[in-house]
Design brief:
Length: 393
Amino acid sequence: MSKLSRTMRTFCYCGTHALAVLSVLVGLQACEPSRPPASNNTGIRFLVQGDEHSEFARASQPHLFEFPRDHGAHPQFRTEWWYFTGNLETESGRHFGFELTFFRYGLSAAIPVGESRWRTNQAWLAHFAVTDTKNNTFYAYERLARNALGIAGAQTDQLGVQVENWYARSETSNEPGGASIALAANAEGTAIELRLQPQRGPVLQGDGGLDPKGPEPGNASYYYSLPRLSVSGNISLPNEEGLAVKGWAWLDREWGTSALSERVTGWDWLSLQLSDGRDLMFYRLRNDDGTANEYSGGSVSSADGQVTRLSREDVNMQIMRQWRSPISNIQYPVDWRVSIESLGIDLLVEPRQDNQELNLGLRYWEGAVTASSVETSASLTGIGYLELAGYND
């Protein structure tokens, strides 16, 4: 949930995580390919404008989730994303983090009319990033494309999304968790080829998957997560190819047509896979005075399928340390104390490395983190990802 344009009131959202520049959107409706200009716009997830786009469907009623159908696209809504993050290790214990995200943005709810094969009512953005902890190096790339000529698009009956040759798609599987997921992306010598296997079913966020973002009718999204995906595959860096890795990943899925409140300027999103088998997700919507907005939320889920919904009052997030980017001069709160007293959780969350800022058409910090108990006598630990959006210099 970060502010993308104060003038246009254009936003994108949330763990919760794109076509923020208006000139880019206009370019995507034309007949020539467009690339995003460098900008100081920040944020990801859930790009929206105001009520002038009322032709799109809104998340206003409970949704009967069906899988694999709901892994696919929902083009009647303006915006949605497929958001993969994960922590990987080689056999020797060398750590990597990765992010691969796909954003679909509806330019219009109407089917485009005309003979040009470039015409489309859908635009796509994808981000790909790798954290090389050993070398304190961070690689980040983006691709922007129209939903035409097979360049980008998504299936509507199952998971199958691509932007150019970056993709996420379901594969046939006889394993208990259901169909596995194949991920692939490459740019300038950095690449992943990964297979993800669900270890537990989808977790519906919010109220049975209907997640409000504000008090206005329809100001909500449909939101679920696959919080524990086992990973195997290969990762390559510009000077190293085909490193075999294993680890854990998280998928966040969200779609809707919605706007954040005027006071909300950004968000802090966290996902953690905890050592006791629980999975934690929380997004802290930030008001313009720095306080947590009342529509902040999240969940803690367990291996047996029990889900505890979290509100702003349940979670205390305290900034412990900040880091200033030498590139953007933006200061990010990268160390946090996260406490949920009712669930016996009190953790210090720290980045694998400070340098995990994506300086692309959009600018935000998203990176691999570890969690450890504040009390030295406690044994709870975790791994995950932290997203910090809407911060400015």
